[in-house]
């Protein structure tokens, strides 16, 4: 039986969004990685190389982006981060529970979240120095 991760959310209207219902998650909560389960229909894949890259980022910068989960512990966004955390031996990861989304909204969000990231571009002037990005120094031309 899936474990319910949510607290009782408060119901309110989100002005300007057209969405009414339970309030979105308000707090980051640590959850064991072994209670989180991947979204079965996730269209996104993660290579072993990418998982190693995510793990290196977590080691360098910390776990800065919580995993989005359903009340039942299904991963909505953050599959790669969970795999990287497990590779690093982490037994817990920060999560946000999105209680306000229905099952259909969660499915739509999984696709939208991945597709929107792919639609982003790059400012080549701002990304000119990969070496500087590793050290946090300013890019010098």
Our count of helices gives 4
**Rounded average pLDDT:** 80
> Can you identify the CATH superfamily?
Conserved hypothetical protein from pyrococcus furiosus pfu- 392566-001, ParB domain
What Rg, in angstroms, do the CA atoms define?
A: 17 Å
Global morphology: globular
Roughly how many Å apart are the termini?
A: 57 Å
Strand sequence of the main sheet, in spatial order?
Answer: 3-6-4-5
**Corresponding CATH architecture:** Alpha-Beta Complex
Question: How many discrete domains?
Answer: 1
Secondary-structure-based class equals alpha+beta
CATH topology title: Conserved hypothetical protein from pyrococcus furiosus pfu- 392566-001, ParB domain
Elements, N to C (H/E): EEEHEEHEHH
Report strand %.
15-25%
State the helical fraction. 25-40%
CATH class term:
Alpha Beta
């Amino acid at each position: 039986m899936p474990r319910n991760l949510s607290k009782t959310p408060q119901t309110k209207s989100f002005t300007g969004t057209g969405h009414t219902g339970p309030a979105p998650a308000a707090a980051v909560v640590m959850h064991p990685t072994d209670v989180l389960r991947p979204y079965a229909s996730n269209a996104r894949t993660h290579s072993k190389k990418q998982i190693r890259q995510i793990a290196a980022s977590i080691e360098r910068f910390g776990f800065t982006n919580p995993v989005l989960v359903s009340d039942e512990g299904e991963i909505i966004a953050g599959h790669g981060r969970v795999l990287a955390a497990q590779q690093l031996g982490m037994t817990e990861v920060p999560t946000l529970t999105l209680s306000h989304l229905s099952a259909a909204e969660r499915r739509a969000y999984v696709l939208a979240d991945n597709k929107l990231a792919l639609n982003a571009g790059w400012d080549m002037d701002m990304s000119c120095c990969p070496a500087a990005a590793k050290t946090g120094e300013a890019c010098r031309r």
